[in-house]
Description:
binds ligand FO1
Amino acid sequence: MIVVLAGGTGAAKFLNGLVQVVDREDIYVIGNTGDDAVFFGLHVSPDLDTICYTLANEVNHGTGWGLSNETWNAMATVERYGGDTWFHLGDRDLGTHLYRTARLREGATLSLVTQEIAEAWRIGIDLVPMTDSPVRTYLELLDGTEVAFQDYFVKLRHSVPVTAVSFRGASKAVPTEGILEAIGEAEQILIAPSNPIVSIGPILAIQGIRELLEKNRDKVKAISPIVAGLALKGPADRLLRELGYESSVVGVAGLLADVADKLVIDEQDMALAKSISEMDIKPVVTNTIMSTPELAKNLASVVIDC
Ligand code: FO1
């Protein structure tokens, strides 16, 4: 079994490559829920939904999140009333949040509801939230205020400097049932090319997960989401710098060296391979830009075989 720690769009693209080289039933994805938020009373799990929609080939390719062939009539009505519409929930996507919220209210766990949603989309992999407990990523801004992840990422367009990141609830959260066993049994554990601070960080903050990865470090391979010092999408490069890390594959290696034996980096970062190997993590150099499903497949096969 291949266990994958995954955030949002970058992880989803990588998984779309992985399912072309590994049988879907052998893939077990631990998804970040620190981005989760409630809008209009509805529980939204963006990273879980992005993975689900992408593997169902139903994701909106323009944005990398939400559903294709979307309409925005419900939001237009909210707009008419002057309601908050900065977080865009399409009419098709709303169905997911209506169902998830109703099931949670009936007492179902997030992991059970996620399994029902994944099965309904026939994605064929195990998609498991990192915990069934509430964990929320907060970012502290220069003026000392703390904002929830979506307020930072969408409302503020992640255009504000960050001084600290915290995962509220993580210290009390236990891993979803089955996660620790899956990590223990896995032939390989992959850390997807997601933001190491706000997408992978929350997963590693759940009791027992980081420790178990350290114990199984020889099976862990990470793919850098940073190429030539930049994030391909989102604020990973700025967050690294703002939180005192180098915005480079060396910075990513510093963050993940305790839990990963290998770090897959792009050819553009070939010159940094030596510095990485001096950090006790083995560099694997290949093309990591997944601009087509074919390239995602190539990356996945390099990762599996290295
Ligand atoms: N990202 C945006 O930049 N703007 C949005 O309006 C937005 C809405 C949205 C709705 C559902 C969903 O599953 C994801 C959505 N995202 C949106 C992406 C979301 O912010 C994710 O957390 C990021 O992709 C980071 O993983």
